[in-house]
From TrEMBL:
SUPFAM superfamilies: Calcium-dependent phosphotriesterase. Signal peptide: none annotated. Residues 98-110 have a biased composition (Basic residues). This is PhoX family phosphatase. Residues 84-97 have a biased composition (Low complexity). Pfam families: PhoX. Residues 84-111, 507-530 are annotated as: Disordered. Coiled coil: none annotated. InterPro entries: PhoX, TAT_signal. Residues 509-518 have a biased composition (Basic and acidic residues).
Length: 691
């Protein structure tokens, strides 16, 4: 059922939409970002000759893609993964690979997660589609009590206090960090990106209660899990000692060069060193030292701002934002008020949380720059420096890299731990320039350079101080001449081959009047399906200035002009709008999607894609999420007897309301829904494993 703006009761609605996403999703998650002019109006001089040649190159790609055909229901049995590792990168255990044997990273093997690809399911299908022989179980849902004493879910009687003790709304980034060698205890860490008040609250709910519950339902959760044996389904433990909620009210500390800067000071924090809360936490990454990084993404939508200064408008801050009316409850969300001009400067950072210590104060790392952070993913370079890769998810924005000044200290001693917790506080920030090498070689590829923004604690951008570079990083990257990308979401190193994969989700503005046209790394006008870039560090060294790159996937329906699947000529699944990426133990890429083009009318999904060997580029669909939902935070575990995939099912049933839900995931309750009579969808973390 399609809602119109006048149907809304809890929020002001623009009623705008983009692609096949429900207008509610566009409004609540990104503040209708795609409905506004992209904030990057600079004219970064991309190599226009290359861009021109890229147009003719698309014909070549079309031919390459024409050999691939869609996978139907009766697709052939998947062959084992054929990943051949490139240069193995030593010394980076942990992260999403707790089972990777130290000293043997990149050992080729056969993924245990074999499956027959599933067919795409129609967009209104309200179920989770998994391969034959697999089943899915819910681990934790919005509203499940996690802190001691938290009340059970009762959607008709929500308070700030109850929400602060329960699993938050719209889970996004996800990791399952095992905490014992038997694989029977773990910490689940999830982001809660945004809230959908139209589904969450019955009509007539007091507006202040709506805001206060929404503040408490943003942020992150840490939840202890247990199970009898490795490979079984996980259960969460209500009230466990390490369970934690981080919300839009939780105190954070700033560290790094901008801590204490005048640019961070407000009436509430005249020293510029602490901030209440984290907002719009999208993707993230788990570090080798066991902490979780989380990206503050579309923070602009929570603020009222004048928008007259480029330092605001370049971030989408302006008078037409303020989509939730939070300033009516808390003045700090009114950036036009004298005391809170700088409040938006206190969001848009990478935050680091130690899930093993519920009393720790989470940190916002100013050395890593401020933009609409999708997330951050870390790899340890051969020399021990820690390198984080990050995307700025906006049309025509950039890919960034952070290299720590200090090196990782091995071991888990208190001293090593203290040291490693400071690794992201100091280092060099740079932004990517992708240079196409022309079309004569028949592939979309080339070389690239990391353009320095900060180095050794100094600004590398003329006319901007170090603090300005880090707070107004988009402006610094504009000046440096970075390459405008098609909404870079996850940017994640593959620990098996050491390459970095960039999910460019889409950009339907490319080629529009007055905007940049196709370039070799972003080769399509009106790019509705997105693509995946593969970056290869020079000499396998993540700290050097140079890299090579190529497009692994140019997404869309196989057989349509312009698509490309790594050169694979056999059947592949259709794929659009790549968003989050993960890797299995042999280095296969797993890609989740967000928002299928309206022409396709299918649910979002998760795909496996080999990146090496004869099956490089063979896209195989593993699961579908229910109507209205997005697939987020995939985690793939395929070693030591485990064969599980975990995903956050975010915003199921967006577009429905409390009274008229369009999804009933995950409980599919009929008749009485019990307490509160809530029958609608509950964003949840699920585990998919062999039946
Ligand atoms: Fe929150 Fe860029 O997805
Ligand atoms: Ca080329
Ligand atoms: Ca995302």
């Amino acid at each position: 059922m399609t809602q119109t703006p006048t149907d809304r009761r809890h929020l002001p609605m623009a009623g705008l939409t983009h692609g096949n996403r429900n207008p509610v999703t566009c409004h609540l998650r990104c503040g209708d970002a795609c409905s506004f002019t992209p904030p990057n109006t600079t004219d970064n001089d991309y190599f226009r000759d290359v861009a021109t040649r890229a147009l003719s190159r698309r014909r070549t790609l079309g031919l390459a893609g024409a050999g691939a055909v869609a996978l139907g229901v009766a697709a052939t049995t998947a062959s084992p993964a054929a990943a051949r590792p490139g240069r193995a990168i030593a010394g980076k255990p942990g992260g999403k690979y707790p089972h990777t044997k130290p000293g043997k990273p990149g050992k080729p093997g056969r993924s245990r997660l074999l499956f027959t690809p599933v067919a795409p399911q129609p967009a209104d299908t309200d179920s989770v589609g998994v391969p034959a022989g697999y089943r899915w179980d819910t681990i934790v849902r919005w509203g499940d009590p996690i802190l001691p004493g938290a009340p059970g879910f009762d959607a008709s009687d929500q308070t700030q206090e109850s929400a602060e003790g329960q699993f938050g709304y719209n889970c996004d980034y996800l990791d399952i960090i095992e905490t014992n060698s038997k694989g029977t205890r773990a910490l689940l860490v999830a982001n809660h990106e945004y809230t959908n008040e139209e589904i969450m609250f019955p009509p007539g709910t007091d507006p202040e209660t709506v805001v206060r519950v929404a503040l408490a339902s943003h942020g992150m959760s840490v939840v202890e899990l247990r199970r009898a044996r490795r490979g079984d389904a996980w259960s969460y433990i209500p009230g466990a000692p390490k369970n934690r909620r981080i919300t839009a009210e939780t105190p954070f500390t700033f560290d790094g060069p901008v801590r204490g800067s005048a640019l961070l000071r407000t009436a509430e924090d005249p020293r510029g060193v602490t901030v209440r809360g984290t907002l719009n936490n999208c993707a993230g990454g788990t570090t080798p030292w066991g902490t979780v990084l989380s990206g503050e993404e579309n923070f602009n939508q929570y603020f009222l701002a004048a928008g007259t200064d480029v330092r605001e408008s370049r971030y989408g801050l302006g008078p037409t934002q303020d989509s939730r009316g939070w300033r009516n409850v808390d003045e700090r969300f009114d950036a036009t008020s004298e005391g809170y001009r700088n409040e938006p400067h206190r969001f848009g950072w990478i935050v680091e949380v130690d899930p093993t210590d519920p009393s720790s104060t989470p940190v916002k790392h100013t050395a890593m720059g401020r933009f609409k952070h999708e997330g951050a993913n870390v790899i340890v370079n051969d020399d021990g420096h820690v390198v984080a890769y990050m995307g700025d998810d906006e049309r025509f924005d950039y890919v960034y890299r952070f290299v720590s000044r200090k090196k990782l200290r091995k071991g888990n001693s208190p001293g090593a731990r203290r040291h490693n917790l400071g690794l992201l506080s100091e280092g060099d920030l740079s932004v990517a320039k992708f240079i196409g090498d022309g079309l004569e070689d028949g592939v979309s590829d080339g070389i690239g350079r990391w353009l320095p923004l900060t180095r050794a604690g100094r600004s590398m951008v003329a006319g901007m101080s170090l603090e300005e570079v880090l707070v107004f990083t988009r402006l610094a990257a504009d000046k440096a001449g970075a390459t405008k990308m098609d909404r870079p979401e996850d940017v994640e190193p593959n620990l098996v081959n050491g390459h970095i994969y960039v999910a460019c989700t889409n950009n339907t503005d490319r080629g529009k009047a007055g905007k940049e046209g196709p370039t070799e790394p972003n080769p399509r006008n009106a790019n509705k399906d997105g693509h995946v870039v593969e970056m290869i560090p020079h000499k396998g060294d993540h700290t050097l200035e140079r890299f090579r790159w190529n497009l692994l996937l140019i997404c869309g329906d196989p057989g349509t002009a312009g698509t490309y699947f790594g050169g694979y000529e056999g059947p592949v699944s259709p794929i659009s709008c790549p968003d989050n990426v993960a890797f299995d133990s042999v280095g296969n890429l797993w890609v989740s999607t967000d928002g299928q083009p309206s022409s396709t009318s299918r649910c979002d999904a998760l795909f496996k894609v080999p990146v090496a060997g004869p099956q490089r580029g063979r896209v195989q669909q593993f699961l579908s999420v229910p109507a209205g939902a997005e697939t987020c935070g995939p985690v793939v575990r395929d070693t030591d007897g485990e064969g599980s995939v975990f995903v956050s099912v975010q915003h199921p049933g967006d577009g429905g309301t409390w009274e008229s839900p369009t999804s009933f995931f995950p409980d599919y309750v009929t008749g009485s829904a019990g307490r509160g009579e809530f029958k609608g969808p509950r964003p949840s973390v699920i585990q998919v494993r062999r039946a």
